Amino acid sequence: MDPYRNPFAPGAGSRPPELAGRSVILDMARISCGRAVNGRNARPIMLLGLRGVGKTVLLNEIGWNAEREGLLVSRAESPEGESLARLIFPEMRKVMRSLSGVEAAKHLATRGLKGLRNFASIFKIEMAGVEVGVEPEPGLAETGDLQYDLPDLFTLIGKAAQAAGRGWLLLIDEVQYLSESDLSALIVALHRTSQEGLPVLMVGAGLPQIARLAGEAKSYAERLFQYPSVGALDPVSAGQAVEKPVLDEDATVAPEALQAIYERTKGYPFFIQELASVVWDNSEGPEITAADVERSYVETLARLDEGFFKVRVDRLTKAEVQFVKAMAQLGDGPYAMADIAKSMGRSQSSLGPARASIISKGMIFSSDHGYLDFTVPLFAEFMRRQG
Ligand SMILES: Nc1ncnc2c1ncn2[C@@H]1O[C@H](COP(=O)(O)OP(=O)(O)OP(=O)(O)O)[C@@H](O)[C@H]1O
Ligand SMILES: [Mg+2]
């Protein structure tokens, strides 16, 4: 059918034409935002899921919903190796600046800007354009220890937002890349604002190991956060994700075709978008048939192999590739570390550095004590296809 009218959206972070199967999480976020704004206890949310399940698009949607409700929304994505201080400084500054324009919040926000100025200088963050009329104030967010300074700033933002009758929503993607001390500081800051009943909420997203990382950073993190898991779509939601956009373009899709798409993709959103997009282009229309799905499958796999999967492997060294190959040869995960070592003819301890490095690159995670699994769904099958 006409490729110009193809509604599907393959690609990292691309907004799907139909965000299917996520209403529970969207409602959870909406309620938490509403509670936070009203000074009621609202637990921060950490979306946990594998690669390509739709965490980024969910965060974006949560952000838009919150903006529509009048919250101030900050967005940050943690790139590997970047400090939290640097990452969220510009966001905090934007929020303080916008609050300083509200009469009722002016005083607090100005104090916040002073704190930010100290913060920037102690954490060596260059500020483009010095704050006009803002004198540094000693003793405010300038210990140089993020565990003290971040809670101070979050509290100031929270108080200013409260005075302005607003709320602040901080969205952080790829949380697993934060260092342990940064994650700790973030948890302490959120704990503080929550204890003080301030209208501050964070929604984070990342790989499943975050739950453990957060627990190791601060033992109370387990009770502080809500951890909804974002996974593959069930057959009904997967069907909606495909059918609704097709109907909107005045075409139809046979029930057998929907079922074939579900079976081929196992409900994984990245795969659904890619397959549905190829199917659309290949179909004569106006009805998409199961045969269209079947003849599009190989092409879709080739696209994923060249894109989605390949970019992940390209980040690994040769020795690391051997490691993940050995995992894939064992079948589908999770994989006992002992079995991986055995199949490679190596000792577990000699594989420790490779294991740690692949984990830090976000390719595998420790699913349970002594067990590993891939963070990329269907990755083992991909590795086996490579021979
Ligand atoms: N609920 C959904 N229904 C249909 N398609 C979806 C849904 N959620 C995400 N998608 C599609 O899945 C793909 C991956 O989404 P996204 O980039 O948000 O995943 P992610 O979990 O952030 O992945 P990564 O961990 O690699 O960053 C996109 O093409 C997006 O359009
Ligand atoms: Mg993402």
Write the layout of secondary structure elements.
Elements: H1 23-37, E1 45-48, H2 55-68, E2 72-77, H3 84-100, H4 106-122, H5 146-164, E3 168-173, H6 180-195, E4 200-206, H7 210-217, H8 221-224, H9 235-248, E5 252-253, H10 255-265, H11 269-282, E6 287-288, H12 290-313, H13 318-329, E7 335-336, H14 337-344, H15 352-360, E8 364-368, E9 371-374, H16 379-385
Helix pairs in contact: 1-2, 3-4, 3-5, 4-5, 5-6, 6-7, 9-10, 10-12, 11-12, 13-16
The structure holds adenosine-5'-triphosphate and magnesium ion.
Residues 12-13, 55-56, 173 line the site of magnesium ion (MG).
Features:
387 residues; alpha/beta; Rossmann fold; Helicase, Ruva Protein, domain 3; Arc Repressor Mutant, subunit A; 3 domains; 4-stranded parallel β-sheet; 3-stranded antiparallel β-sheet; 16 helices; 54% helix; globular; binds adenosine-5'-triphosphate; binds magnesium ion; AAA_16; P-loop_NTPase; AAA family ATPase
Protein architecture, described:
The chain has helices at 23-37, 55-68, 84-100, 106-122, 146-164, 180-195, 210-217, 221-224, 235-248, 255-265, 269-282, 290-313, 318-329, 337-344, 352-360, 379-385, and strands at 45-48, 72-77, 168-173, 200-206, 252-253, 287-288, 335-336, 364-368, 371-374. The chain is globular, with a radius of gyration of 23 Å. The chain has 16 helices and nine strands. It folds into three domains: 23-224, Rossmann fold; 233-313, Helicase, Ruva Protein, domain 3 (Orthogonal Bundle), CATH 1.10.8; 318-385, Winged helix-like DNA-binding domain superfamily/Winged helix DNA-binding domain (Arc Repressor Mutant, subunit A). It has a four-stranded parallel beta sheet with strand order 1-4-3-2, with helices on both faces. Helices cover 54% and strands 10% of the residues. The mean pLDDT is 93. Helix 3 runs parallel beside helix 5, helix 9 crosses helix 10 and helix 13 packs across helix 16. It is of the alpha/beta class.
